[in-house]
Each structure stands twice: as structure tokens, then as C-alpha cells.
Specification:
alpha+beta; 8-stranded mixed sheet; 10 helices; 37% helix
Length: 359
């Protein structure tokens, strides 16, 4: 495709030449070797400026000047010029692709829910979220992604964050799983899911990173910075990635104190104790549902609240506790009702529950 003189000159200006430089260079290309006075006559460069313009072009490697009866100018070897222009074109192409990528993958700060097209974006955000975690991390991933996030998980565990790790292996192969020594200091508990699974990371009840498993026909990721949407992903994690699978590593002791980050597990364990007449002492760290302030509640458990099926309180699977679940704790200031994630009718939303003692 041929380009006319005006368009070629304009393109050279876009590449960094001044209007006079572009005009003079195109003229030299058209004339071949020619006296400088001839270049001035044919181009639109004023006579008083032609020598300075050509000197600048020579310094940039576009032309060379030489004496032959008078001062002549001719274009230099094209390899250096074309290499420079091709380099500029590649940078513009790369910039265009980066602009498109950033437009397609907005940062989490711009939206509570972002759809991204690269898994690298998902795992990068997962690493950042885990490093900022304060209370809990729930994640489902393969062995290779576990190795990628290992440093962030170790740092979170060192800070006292509860880390629940559901790890899946190719074709359910348990031989490639990290052993207890590998998992020590990395998580609070690990379970092995024996089928391929999506990548899921849920942090502090607010942030989620999700990507389909490798066999999915559509490659995409979801980044969430929102409590309501994260709650949906949490229930998905709890019922399909966690509760149904056996533990392969845990730091939990069966003797108090025992920590819970989900009220449903606490209710499942303490309800039989309460029914048998035991005195169960609890400590709850959470949020006052009226003021939004941090609140700590300590006292003796007096009742459990399980809405729905009357038999749910004796169920083993946490999915059975799908309705309202709560605790009533007798404190020095009177009874306090404690709820779980998203509590509205209770006085406190529990973030961490500690079973202090059973007598």
C-alpha cells in the first residue's frame, strides 16, 4: 500500500521528527543525492533554516552531508532508520495491548465485582488479599497454586489468622499431596478433595478470588470486594470444598481452648454438651450489630438457636445449619445473643468464638 507524501510526512512527525525535519527528509528521499540548495527549493523549509534542519537530521542518523562543488545531502542506509521506526511501532502496539488489558481488568478498588481474563491477575490479587488478612482465609486450590501462595499463607498463619486449606490433586492422587511437615505453619487445617476444583480464595468474609478449574471451556476470573457476594462463595466453599472431605492436617486440639471462625461448627459441638448439663464458657470476638464497633463477649452458654428443621441441631454436616444459628451467652451485664456472618437480629456478629472451658 502506497502512502502519499503528506501522510508520510505526518507519520514521521508522529515518530518524533519536527515538521521541517520530516519535510526535508522526505525531500532527500525523493531527490536522492542533491545539493542542499535544491533540497531547500523543493521542500517547504525556509532557506535560513535548511542547514540547521539537515544538521539535526544528520545527527539523528537520517542523512549525511558531504562536499561536492557545494554541500550535498543524501539519505543514510535505511536499516538504522527502519529499525528505529519498527521499534517505535512495537512500543505503540505494546502500549495499545496494555491499555486494552487494563481496560478489561479493572482494579478491585474500581468495582466490588470485577471480571478478569487472566488467571495471573486472580492469583496475584489472592496473594495480596492473604497478606492483608486479619482473621480468616478459606481457600481451595491445586498443589501448584498452593506452592505459589505458600509464603503468603505462612505469613498469615504466623499472624494468628485461621487458614482453612482445601487442596485437590490430579485424578485424586494423594501421593502428590504435601505432607504434615509441609503443611505445618502454613495452615490451621487442610483437607483433600479428590476431584478437580475451581480456584477459590476467601479472605475476612469480604474478599474473594475465583477462577474455574483448568478443564473449563471458558477462561476467566472473578474478583470480589463485597460481603454479600463473598457470602455466596463462602457457602459454596463450605459445602462443596470443605465439609464433605476428610482432614489431612490440623492444629486443633480436642481439649479447650478451641477456636471457631464459623458459628455453625461451634453450635454443632456445644449443643450436645449443653443438653447433657455441662457448663460451657465462651469468649466471642465480633462486631456490635447496632453500632458496628468491635465487641468482646464472655460468659456461660445458656442456649443455642437453630431455626428450621428441629433435628438440625444434632446434624453432623454444617450445611444442615442453613437457617438462623445463634448462641445465648450469660454475661455480667445479662444475656447477649450472638449470631454468625451477617447477623441482624442478634446483638453481636461473631468473628471468632473460643470455647474456653467445659465443666
Amino acid at each position: 500500500m502506497r502512502v502519499d507524501r503528506a501522510e508520510l510526512t505526518e507519520t514521521l512527525e508522529d515518530a518524533g521528527l519536527s515538521p521541517y525535519q520530516a519535510d526535508a527528509y522526505v525531500t532527500v528521499l525523493e531527490l536522492g543525492a542533491a545539493p542542499v540548495t535544491r533540497v531547500a527549493d523543493v521542500s517547504g523549509v525556509p532557506d535560513p533554516r535548511i542547514y540547521d534542519v539537515l544538521r539535526d537530521l544528520e545527527s539523528a542518523g537520517y542523512i549525511e552531508t558531504y562536499e561536492q562543488e557545494s554541500l550535498y545531502a543524501r539519505a543514510n542506509d535505511l536499516d538504522e532508520i527502519t529499525d528505529d521506526l519498527e521499534s517505535r511501532a512495537k512500543r505503540l502496539t505494546a502500549a495499545t495491548e496494555e491499555i486494552e488489558r487494563r481496560w478489561n481488568e479493572p482494579s478491585v478498588e474500581r468495582s466490588t465485582v470485577s471480571i478478569v481474563t487472566r488467571f495471573e491477575t486472580v492469583i496475584k490479587n489472592a496473594d495480596e488479599f492473604i497478606r492483608e488478612a486479619e482473621t480468616q482465609v478459606n481457600l481451595s486450590l491445586g498443589v501448584d497454586h498452593f506452592e505459589r501462595l505458600r509464603p503468603a499463607l505462612r505469613a498469615a498463619t504466623d499472624r494468628g489468622v485461621r487458614v482453612n486449606l482445601s487442596i485437590h490433586t490430579p485424578d485424586g492422587d494423594g501421593e502428590v499431596l504435601p505432607d504434615a511437615e509441609d503443611l505445618a505453619g502454613i495452615c490451621s487445617e487442610a483437607r483433600h478433595r479428590r476431584v478437580p476444583s475451581p480456584f477459590v480464595v476467601i479472605v475476612d468474609r469480604t474478599k474473594t478470588c475465583f477462577a474455574p478449574h483448568a478443564g473449563s471451556t471458558n477462561e476467566y476470573g472473578v474478583l470480589v470486594d463485597d460481603r454479600t457476594h463473598t457470602y455466596v462463595f463462602y457457602w459454596y466453599f463450605l459445602t462443596t470444598q470443605w465439609d464433605a472431605w476428610k482432614s489431612i492436617y490440623t492444629t486443633r486440639d480436642d481439649e479447650p481452648p478451641i477456636d471457631y471462625i464459623d458459628i455453625r461448627y461451634c453450635v454443632r459441638d456445644v449443643a450436645p454438651l449443653l443438653r447433657d448439663g455441662a457448663t460451657v464458657r465462651l469468649r466471642i470476638e465480633g462486631t456490635d450489630t447496632e453500632s458496628g464497633d468491635d465487641r468482646v463477649v464472655e460468659g456461660v452458654l445458656s442456649d443455642v438457636v437453630v431455626a428450621g428443621d428441629d433435628d438440625a441441631v444434632d446434624a453432623d454436616t454444617v450445611a444442615s445449619y442453613g437457617g438462623r444459628v445463634g448462641l445465648v451467652v450469660e454475661t455480667d451485664d445479662g444475656p447477649v445473643e450472638v449470631g454468625g456472618w451477617g447477623a441482624m437480629v442478634e446483638a453481636v456478629e461473631a468473628h471468632r468464638i473460643t470455647l474456653v472451658s467445659v465443666a
